[in-house]
Amino acid sequence: MSVLKRVIPCLDVDRGRVVKGTNFVGLRDAGDPVELAERYDAEGADELVFLDITATHEKRETIVDLARRTADNVFIPFTIGGGIGSVADAQSVLDAGADKVSVNSSALARPELIGELATVFGSQCVVIAIDAKRAVAEPAVPTAPPRWDVYVAGGRRRIDGCDAVGWAREAAERGAGEVLLTSIDRDGTNLGYELELTGAVAAAVAVPVIASGGAGEPAHLAEVVLEAGADAVLCASIFHYGAFSVRQAKQAMREAGVAVRL
User: Is 12 one of the catalytic residues?
Assistant: First the structure.
């Protein structure tokens, strides 16, 4: 029996509202997070991801209240990320009703955090989020294999010497149960996922990889699963602004040969 692939709407939250931009900038309002979450639950989404995109940059606390309100109204698993830098931070979000936590810059600053979270809550609760951008090739080595740099703070700051594939491998070895991989180059462009990046990470780790950044039509969702080995697809703008419903996307994936839950 085929393992079912997951369709996961992503809700980037800024000051209590869902927003979406292109390449991590040019944000525009997309609605109330709990109302959108309820809609996606009814449409057949497998999970949800909430990312408080200003939590780390502005040093604000995590969105515990959002987790609590979502848990009261939504009946599918959801992940909360943004500003989680300790076991205590994660505990507060999970106690409020979240099923998983996502960590990004805090894990890069202190990689031991991944193991601490996995020890307390189990690897199944720990998602490592990686925001990656294709590195510019060195003129002296034009034939070098592609490399993707890791960025934090909403794509504002590059982590020197940090390769996305290598970091994904290390994070999984430290106890992360899933990799949430976002291509900054493709984010919000509707041009499709970064297949080469997704395939490289999927080949490097033994845990599920959630592809993110670039979905513009249902065909892109099937493509990243069938061609790059993604275990799940994260989508935002194609759902938020009504271009497609979750149900339409999953039906198209099934027709393309991807096993999904309808």
Answer: yes
Please provide residue 79's backbone torsions phi and psi, each rounded to the nearest 5 degrees. Answer: -110, 140
CA dist., res. 93 & res. 91, Å (int):
6
pLDDT in tens, 124-162: 999 999 999 999 876 666 667 899 999 998 788 999 999
Sign of CA dihedral 72, 115, 148, 3: negative
Q: What is the CA radius of gyration of the chain?
A: 17
Contacts of 73 (CB under 8 A, 6+ apart): 34, 37, 38
**Token pair in block for residue 107:** 């894990």
> Taking the model in full, what pTM does it have?
0.92
CA atoms lying within 13 Å on the CB side of residue 235: 37
- Torsion-angle region of residue 150: left (phi > 0), alpha (psi -120 to 50) or beta? beta
Q: Determine whether 163 is an active site residue.
A: no
In terms of phi and psi (left: phi > 0; alpha: psi -120 to 50; beta: otherwise), the region of 242 is left
Other beta carbons within 10 Å of 73:
12
Annotated catalytic residue within 41, 46, 89, 131: 131
7-255 CATH choice from 3.40.50.150, 1.10.1200.10, 3.30.70.970, 3.20.20.70: 3.20.20.70
Of 12, 46, 52, 89, which is the active-site residue? 12
Q: How far apart are alpha carbons 88 and 193 in whole angstroms?
A: 34
Half-sphere exposure of 209 (CA within 13 A, CB side): 31
